[in-house]
Amino acid sequence: MNRLINLLFRRQGGFLLVEAILAVALTALIGLGASMAAAQVCTQTARNADYTTASRQAMNAIAWLGQDAQVAQEISGIDTFPEDDLVFSWTWWDNSEHSATYSLADGELRRTSSSGGEETVSVVAVYIDDDESLTFCSLDDGVLTISITAALNRASVTKSRDIVPRPSL
Question: Is residue 10 part of a domain?
């Protein structure tokens, strides 16, 4: 038995150079794959964040515009938006005059609301694309179509809504 143990352990003097190089190469290959996967996850996370932000901004703009369009009795600036302001105006039951004016400049959609002589300005959405083929309003057969495009880095999201405004009283 001792003779068998001596034979087994006598030939083990360490790793061969080829085995060591193979082990280093395999470790490097695994490390490279892991770092590439981590980089891909980080890049995809940034893209998803950009898409989510752009989508939320476009949805927020559509929600505000849609809400004002539904109560508006008069709408002006439909054909020239976003170059010119889009104005919604209406009269409440108590004969008080109200309006909401939307203007787009430097990617910010601003809403200026007027109620009883008081004006309030708020930023409704940011990252809005001012290209007239992407962000626009149109009125066809009594249906107001609003299309808003928000773009952030590599993400671009377009949201549209068809609204039937209330008739003038």
Answer: no
